[in-house]
Amino acid sequence: xxxxxxxxxxxxVQRSVEYYTKFLELRVVGEPTPQRAVLDAVTATIELRAxxxxxxxxxxxxxxxxxxxxxxxxxxDRLDERADVLKAAGVEFKLDPxxxxxxxxxxxxxxxxxxxxxMIQGDLQYAAVLDADGVARERALGVxxxxxxxxxxxxxxxxxxxxxxxxxxxxxxxxxTIEQPHDQRGFxxxxxxxxxxxxxxxxxxxxxxxxxxxLDVAGFAYAxxxxxxPTDLTTATAPDGTSVYVDPDGFAFAVGSEA
Length: 259
Description:
4 helices, 2,3-Dihydroxybiphenyl 1,2-Dioxygenase, domain 1, 17 strands, alpha+beta, nine-stranded mixed beta sheet
């Protein structure tokens, strides 16, 4: 089952709509309001919600050793051309375009309220393929005509436990790994595929920090998965009353039907 929707809190919905439609070619669904807008990202939607608390109120850190949400990734064509447009507009980058492990090209940058985004170009060449059919389905998606939501990345403590949980409850398949041999922290990435989307899970062999999800400040709020509500996780309530579940690593998600 896929990631259906990603909720991103923002201090100015119209500004964020303009950002995501201009730089990532997401398409507006329905009629935006000052409080909310929904954007089509091909394989899922990005939902922008207004909050009063800005980036300075967030406890999220760009240090990948903080467990929980890390970034939202979009598969793109013409990555360098797109990055040049972002840079010309003064968008803040965390990582300039480069060739990465797995024979892909990537870059990282921030949205207007500090949510970290990634663009990735090319098909990953996995260090280990664990589900050949899943990898084949991923590659069958082809080169996107416009940027599509590819993954949500999280830092976790225990890859096996995370893989087992999201497979059992939400049907995600562990399709492969990418290793980072030059990273002295013992960095490895696992890919859990659900439908046309992926949970990208970071593991490290060094100590990590934790944070409680913040549903009422600017930045990533939660992802929405297709499936049934869990019965074994801590719950929180979003400002609009949505029940949100928090896994042991602090990753927040809601659930809904596949329709």
